[in-house]
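Help! Submission page says 'invalid entity' but I think these are all valid:
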Amino acid sequence: MTDIAIIGGGPAGLSAAIYAASLGAKVTLIDDGLELGGQLIKQTHKFFGSEKQFAGIRGIKIAEKMIQDIKGYDNVEVIANATVTGYYEDEVITIIQGVNGDILKKMKAKKIILATGAAENMLPFANNDLPGVYGAGAVQTLMNLYGVVPGNNILMVGAGNIGLIVSYQLLQAGIKVEAIVEALPKIGGYLVHASKIRRLGVPIYTSHTLKEVSGTDCVEKAVISKINQNFEFIPGTEKELGVDTICLAVGLSPLSDLLWQAGCQMKYVPELCGYVALRDDNMKTTKNKIYIAGDVAGIEEASSAMLEGQIAGLNAAVSLGCKCDNYEELDKKLKAELKELRDNPLSEEIKIGIGKALIKEGKD
Amino acid sequence: MRIKEHPILEFNQKEEVKFTLDGKELEGYKGEPIASALVAAGIKVLSRSIKYHRPRGFFCAIGKCSSCLMKVNGVPNIRTCVTKLEEGMKVETQKGKGDFN
Amino acid sequence: MLERTGIPTDDDLEKVIPDKKRLAKGPVVIIECFQKIPCDPCAISCKLGAIKPFKDINDLPQVDFDKCTGCGVCISSCPGLAIFVIDMNYSDDKSLIKIPHEMLPLPGKGEDVYALDRAGNILSKVKVIKVLKIKNKTNIISLEVPKSMTMKVRSIKVEGKNQ
């Protein structure tokens, strides 16, 4: 039986794997992507945060380094292109592999770290199921990983970090971005990202949203509209845009299915963007064997995902008896770094959310 | 369409492979997702919905939304956005649930 | 305001532009960063201590303009591409502006390009004096701009197949 099964090989999962392996734990890392690295492998922009979380380095390079590090441990087994489909009462993990999904594997582990990340939200608007409507992350994957142009003229919906960053990356790929619409009256992402985009001539329409798209078998045009404080369309403010591609950057939701199945206590926390498992400050859920890290624990950033992964990896390994002479010092340092990352006005909501998701003393 | 030049990334020459979509021959790169090769070839409709036959296309790219399900080498409901393209693959637009014949 | 448009106002800019006396002396940095986020590569990159070391990673960068020589090392370090170096002592009627550039095509030395303001509007055609290719791909372009446009030009549009 493996010591620690880590489900998800993105920044959180990789960080957990490297940390636990460095303490001597036997780690099995399971990932369902075509490559390890989660969303990092398409992040061409330079990271923020501090040097310890690779600030100034492009996400793709961070992924490369972490994947290289993992290879250096012979106590890490990687099961790639594999989807964990269940976590059953008898603690069996089922894994599906193969082009046709017809290879079934079963395994057990002493501890589990769930780092399954998140999925993009949909937005209701007329004909939102037309081809040409993409999640913004999907467009980023097509462009940066596979060098494929998703369309010729893009409307970006959402001015959070994903919307702003992917718009910039579209421009870098030589693709026209017609406009960014944002339902809120303010830009939600980092203002430096917004400034970068404005300098290149892309307009940002706040208090606007996408009303409908139309076309035969694919998007041929879009209608945007101004909205009031109640998010209602203001008549007479519609604008028609001749775009062939819509990118939705309207938020992410944690992929918590396995946690539900495992019987972890779950809670809807709006500040963390969906249903998350309750956890202690070691990232351990209400199930003693199961830890969480990264976006599945609450939508945040890659830098916090890496730190949460390290905290989970450290604590899972030590709980199994892995030798770690300066455990207290390391644990304290990681938690202090995470706290510092969150010590800014933009992280207020997240801190409130985490407060709501913490297991209270005396409760199991 | 493929990106030829990029200010940050290098798209290295990969092995070209031939495959078919509904009998028509197309080209893509070995190992890229089938759906990516289709988008590059200008194909937008990957399947049709069960009841109203509405066109479905690439959406999430991480195998979670079911919009990219196609029949590949005779097997339906293949998530083409997370399935690697191989030489000679027979890809078909899926209509509805797909059949196993 | 900035949070609605993404464009810093004159009030915002006033906080980061050095005084006339310093501007007249020669090259100096302007960091157009107005929001507290966890980010400190600029301070780490400055070997002269002109960007004062951060006490907290969420601090806004504070510049000691007297220590700053306008060397431009920080320009490429900023993940937000928010750092520029201006030299108003360049000539009688022109300033030299160094901007970060991560787009294609990369202009050539001596080429004329369109100078854009913070809203992407074309202000004028200006000459590229130098193109510095940086390992991390945030290249630095030096532009010769009319003095009156020193505080306006922050981007370029290069004639070519990509734009």
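Support: the input was valid. A stray whitespace character was the problem, and the output above is from the cleaned input. Chain A is about 30% helix and 25% strand.
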